[in-house]
Every structure is written in C-alpha cells, then in structure tokens.
Amino acid sequence: MSLSFLDQISKQFHNGLPFVAYRKPNEVDVKVIFQKDQELYYVNDYTESGFVFAPFNAHSPAVLIKNEETFVETFESGPGYSDSTITFPLDKDSDKDFYLKLINKAIDKIESGTINKVVLSRSIDLEISKSPFALFKELVHQYTTAFCYIWFHPKVGLWLGATPEIFLETRNDQFKTMSLAGTQLYSGEKVPNWGDKELVEQEMVTQFIRESLKDKVSSLLVSKAISARAGNLWHIKTSVSGKMNTSGLKEIINVLHPTPAVCGVPKMVAKEFILKNENHDRQYYTGFLGELNFKEDISRRLSRKNQENRAYRTIKNKTSLYVNLRCMQVIGNMVKVYVGGGITKGSVPEKEWQETQDKSSTMLNIVLK
C-alpha cells in the first residue's frame, strides 16, 4: 500500500469529509469511496447504491456513503495473521464484575423460559499511539481472510474492523448468508472439538435464518456446519443460499437483522434485554456494512456457433454486506474495542468472560503491537 494512498485517505479525514476504504476477504484490492460533502445520507428502502453502514438497533437509520469518487489500489500482503496473542500487561478486567453479573442475569432469564439465547457485549477503552491509517494498514496485512475496513463520517465518527462474518450477499435475485457461532482459540490443531453448548448455539442461529426466510425465498439450501478459522479463532459456520423471488432486499434485511449470532432468540425479547441491561451503547457494533447495489459488469464470448463471435455483456446488481464484528471506534487518542458472546442455558460465566478476552485479541493485537 503506497504512502500516497494513505495520504489521500488522511487528507480526506483531516478535511472532515466522509470516506470508506475496505478490502474483501482473500482479495488484494483495497477499494476507496470518497464523499464530496459532509451531508449525512441515509438508506430509505435499500434500492440506493453506495456503501452502507448500519447500526445494531434497526430503529436507527443506516448511513450511506454515495459512490461519488472511487478508486482501487492493490495491496500486496506479506505473511498472514499472527498466531500469537498480546503478552504485555493490560487492564482489560475493569468491567469483569459487571459482565459476570450480567451473564448471570441472562442465565436467570433463560432458565425462566423468557429467552433461549442472548448475546452480551462489552467494550474496552485504550489509549493509542498509532494513527488510524496505520491501524488500517495493519488490519489489511494481518487479517487476509477477513473483511477489513476504515470508515469515517464527521457527524458519526471513525470506525475500523476486520470481520469474518457475511451478513448477506446478493447477485440479482440470488442470495447467500451464513450463521456463525461458537468460539475457540486456535492452538495449532487441525480442527477443534465442539461441545454441546457451541453446537446448540450454532443450531439456534441456523434455525432462525431458515424459519425467517422460508416464506420469502425459494430453493433454500442449508449446508452442513463446518469449522472455520478466522485469525486466531475457530468458529462453527453454516452457509445458507437461495432465490429472493418477489421479496426485496429491504424485506430480507429486516427479517434477518439482527441475527441470533449478535442478538438472541427470540429476537425482539433478546434485543430488549440487551438495550436495557448492557452498560454501553453498541452503536454500529453488531450492525452491518458493505456494498449496496453495486453494478458488476461481466463480459464473455458467445459460443463458436455464433459466426460473428461477438462479446456478450451482462450487468448484475450485487450487494455484499458483512456483520460488524471485531471492530473498534476511534475517539481522539482513544479506541473503544467491542466484543461479545452468546449466552445459552449451558453457559458458564467465567468461560463466557474468557471468550470475550480471546475475541478482543483480534483488535488489541493491532492496537498494541
């Protein structure tokens, strides 16, 4: 990534103008979108085109950065993510008592039959000495299989992340999504052994997606669950695909967001518990972000039976959205790192706390190393 490329992003930031730079999983191109004014544009019905940044709470509007100025630069990545985790002293335990009490409160709700699962989050505040642009460069370098981004709007703030989870991908009327649950720290094993708690949690997410979409799509295909590695963590992943039929993108998004992977089951009861009991505002953490209604131009040759052998051109409408996990918000010389975990009937509070510690290493490895 050239110095001039980072300088362009830095200049846009210091001019107080919105932008986003991002690199999709397993790709080498970093795409950049600049907005020419400070206007705060919102998504109304998901027929718009641009880069969408949506909050966890769907009652708040999703922000849109329009495709006013775009360019692409190839980033030649070096070695992939580091398997090591942070080793220097860090006070990440300041909210431990509160978080453990919150987990126990959630378990009481689950045992009473009110909730089957709820995802609880926490945030870690740290001082930083690196610029946000250096942090983004490190994210792209370290997490080659994640969706890495840096996003800024002067009326919203500055966010960075490296998320492993697809929220929704569409090409014309075809769609794909995934359920991702369960977490284990990578320790050199080929595949991890999953316990009942993780498997049940994963099935809850998959079943929610299946039930939410069954009356709105056709040709619904649900894959077998597999172990998927993301950085120094393992997760359980199931892919879901199908055809949207007459359902529009807005309708599909509304029934899926927020999924049990970031909220809980039943969705509205779990969401109410989260909004009432967490000690911070998630804002855009566990929301979603990405390309909305981009045009993909595909050209190919017709068969040899066509004597003119003309090029055949199709334009597809493509959307690529990711869940905003493994992310941080930059506030002056501070960063707020967001992490969370799913609480179910089989949850052990201390283990759930440790899971958030493990997940925090994705961002803390970038901030502190």
Major β-sheet annotation: 10 strands, antiparallel
Instruction: Round the Cα radius of gyration to an integer and report it.
Output: 21 Å
Tell me the name of the CATH class: Alpha Beta
Helix-strand category: alpha+beta
Give the helix level as a range of percent: 25-40%
| Total helical elements | 7
Q: How widely separated are the two ends?
A: 19 Å
The total strand number stands at 19
Number of domains: 1
Give the second-level CATH assignment, the architecture.
4-Layer Sandwich
CATH superfamily: Anthranilate synthase
Which oligomeric form is depicted? single chain
Summary tags:
Anthranilate synthase, 10-stranded antiparallel beta sheet, globular, Chorismate-binding protein, ADC_synthase, Chorismate_C
Can you describe what's shown?
It is a single chain. The chain has helices at 3-14, 96-111, 132-142, 196-213, 249-256, 267-277, 349-368; strands at residues 19-23, 29-34, 41-42, 50-54, 63-65, 69-74, 117-127, 147-153, 157-163, 166-171, 174-185, 218-222, 226-230, 233-243, 264-265, 288-301, 311-323, 327-331, 334-343. With 369 residues, it is of the alpha+beta class. It has one domain: Anthranilate synthase. The strands form two sheets. Strands 3, 4, 5, 10, 11, 12, 13, 14, 16 and 17 form a ten-stranded antiparallel sheet that branches. Strand 1 (19-23) and strand 2 (29-34) form a beta hairpin. Helix 2 crosses helix 7 (349-368). The model is unreliable at 79-89 (pLDDT under 50).
